Amino acid sequence: MLPKPKRFWTPANWASWKPFGIGEQYPNNYWEVFRAFWLSRAKLPYAWNILNKGVCDGCALGTTGMKDWTVEGIHVCNVRLRLLQMNTMPAFDPAILGDVSQLHAVSSAELRNFGRLPYPMIRQRGEKGFRRVNWDEAMEVIASRIRATTPDRLSFYITSRGTVNETYYAAQKAVRAMGTNNIDNAARICHSPSTAGLKGALGAAATTCSYKDWIGTDLLVFIGSNVANNQPVTVKYLHYAKKAGTKIVVINTYREPGMERYWVPSIPESALFGTKFAEDFFLVNMGGDMGFLNGTIKHMIANGWVDQSFINGYTSEFDELKAFLETQSWEELERLSGSDRDQMYAFAKMVGEAQKAVFVWSMGITQHEFGEDNVRAIINLALTKGFVGREGCGLMPIRGHSGVQGGAEMGCYATVFPGGKPMTPENSAQLSKLWGFEVPTSKGLIAPEMIHAAYEGQLNVLFSVGGNFLEVLPEPDYVEDALKRVPMRVHMDIVLSSQMLVEPAETVVLLPATTRYEIPGGVTETSTERRVIFSPEIPGSRIGEARPEWEVFMELARRVVETRHGASLHFADTAAIRQEIAQVVPQYAGIQHLKEVGDQFQYGGSHLCFGWNFPTPDGKAHFAVLSPPQKELPEGYFLVATRRGKQFNSMVQERKDAITGAVREAVLMNEGDAKHLGLKNGDTVILKNELGEYKGRVYIAPIQSRNLQVHWPEGNVLLDKSKRSREGVPDYNAVVCLEKVN
Q: Which of 176, 389, 426, 632 is the most exposed, having the fewest neighbouring CB atoms within 10 Å of its CB?
């Protein structure tokens, strides 16, 4: 039984004795509430019902209405409040797309603020802009192009922007009916290394624990993750974790202010005096996590802090890891990690003394060429003490989008079938028999490969639901050139994006989508903790001719394939989709019963691998021998990582980040490095490498020496499209030289 949070106020945890943190840098959460309701004032009852009954379309914590299954009280965060406007705004006047030349200088935020996309629209090569068409014409234009194209020259991409399980499932089924596995989703460019790492080591490809395990565990470690910015409701969990005696530690390149302290607006004690979260920060180089964790394990072995009984009975390959670590010198580990032996010892001692621990990670771990190995390094550390499969313990790749967890699980993935089943002839035959059409067995194109195929002239149709390749992938100029070479592009979304305005090679079609709250019959979402939650349709006015994406995909497939497949390419409603999901995806059995507000279940229970029962071929968890990347940093060069500011995915919402105080053009720099180069706050600098240049302004920050951070997606001009992890995640980091602009 985990300790409960203390009920009385705890001054030792306060961030400041100044009432309401006067003068401190942190978000004005009360202003965010007022702002959200002011912007949605024309539809206040509808906005309220979305907040009070719908499942959050922000991050993947999975609040239903304004409550969850972790702690009591009302939960609503800045991310969700900012997204509320997109769910309540009116339609834009289609005339604004009559001549798109005037829109090229308009920012993405301004494009979104025009309003909702109301009608299907089409633009042919040589035309100044888009014209309105009816659905039948739009669908036939798309279907006729697909029918005239071989399946290998088709690609479909589904973003996680509020996307629901029913859409993912219907889309992948429709695409496979059209003869291709070229369908991918946003999980590809965020947590696919986590899925692969967990599956290989534990046999379970998802978060192994629940959010409740944070509160009262001995040690809660965040590695390359900034939940205060990206999953703001978690600051409430962190507050109660501190009050339950949990030690919070962060391993990162930057001492994230929001992970150090925060003023939680819905808790009087924290709203008044703030809460100190992380007791220790261990700063490492960009990409230095593996070296730091190897050093930690090396200390734990040397000091007898590992659980040898668990290791002997439930794991394999530990001796191989131990032997390899003996060959790694401390000098090498210090050089590779950017940390020192004493810091590794301090962290190892914390892990060694803990009886229970939870490890949480995010993009700072996965978005590297060696992302999978980064994940396996965390798993290695957890396995030294058996921190999995029991209360207060676990491995959690925390998700930043409300729809992303279910994407691959529904089979909306180029490399696996529904349920994560491998693409074997046996699994293909099973699906073919069930669905009534032949399911292809060869792996499809993953998201970055789709753009490469487009650039090489090997793609005839690119269908993108949401997302914005221009502002997500490295080398944006290359991405734009690739998009210009696709004969037919289809963009289905609720608002405008810059990629829609890229010149057509032949034809560009825009299709208006509904939000998750507008879909008849309601839908489901899967949270980070594997909780499948029902989100009802919210009654209210609707936008123009917007349609649910799942309906569009099924109709498109029926238009493309032969008539005999029609019966298996029809769903009466979303309930029918859930019925089939329960049949095809074993872990989702129970989804067919979800139909009311609050209906949910957590597949796999509160803990995967409970009782140390690992669903691997040999029934054991597997250590991995990992050699940290040997990155040499030439004199005068810096490591640069891309970070998020006040934004959701690539949707930038403010020029200034209310948590850090940094503006969009900020180049976060170590104080000692700045002094050495004769730089001060606000100085203009240029970051350069062989791929591009980035002009910004120095922002002195508590960051590891010889490391820089710039905002994403602005910094994508410095990134190398060819650098990807084994699972295909782009490496969102670079090496640059720095020049001062006089």
A: 632
- Element housing 735 (H / E): strand 733-740
Token output for 147: 């029918």
Nearest to 194 by CA among 410, 409, 395: 395
* pLDDT tens digits along 579-605: 999 999 999 999 999 999 999 999 999
Rounded to whole angstroms, the Cα distance separating 70 from 214 reads 10
Task: Name the most confidently modeled range: 15-24, 402-411, 452-461.
Answer: 452-461
Alpha-carbon distance of 214 to 391, in angstroms, equals 10
Gap between the Cα atoms of 327 and 551, Å rounded: 58
Residue 705 has pLDDT above 80, yes or no: yes
Answering whether pTM is above 0.85, one says: yes
Half-sphere exposure of 231 toward its Cβ, with a 13 Å CA cutoff? 26
Give the C-alpha separation, 238 to 213, whole Å: 11
Residue 693's CB is within 10 A of a number of other CB atoms, namely: 12
Q: pLDDT > 90: what percent of the chain?
A: 90
Burial 9-30, CB ≥16 within 10 A → b, else e: eeeebbbbeeebbeeeebbebe
Cβ–Cβ under 8 Å, residues 731 and 367: yes
Q: How far apart are CA 25 and CA 6, in angstroms?
A: 27
CA distance 220 to 249: 6
Task: Name residue 532's beta-bridge partners.
Answer: 526, 601
- For residue 132, give Cα distances in angstroms to 95, 294, 551: 9, 59, 20
**Cβ-contact 432, 438 below 8 angstroms:** yes
Q: How many CB atoms lie within 10 A of CB 637?
A: 15
Is the preceding omega at residue 634 within 30 degrees of 0, hence cis?
no
Contact partners, residue 106, CB within 8 Å, separation at least 6:
none
Name the residue among 734, 731, 647 with its Cα closest to residue 189.
Answer: 731
Structure confidence at residue 713 (pLDDT): 92
Spatial strand order of the sheet with 131-132 comes to 131-132, 121-124, 507-512, 488-493, 461-465, 154-158, 183-185
End-to-end CA distance of the chain: 61
Looking at per-residue pLDDT, the higher value among 155 and 78 belongs to 155
DSSP state of 215: T
Which of these, 157, 229, 528, 194, lies nearest to 368 by C-alpha position? 194
Which residues are paired to 417 by β-bridges? 421
Region of residue 540 (phi > 0: left; psi between -120 and 50: alpha; otherwise: beta): left
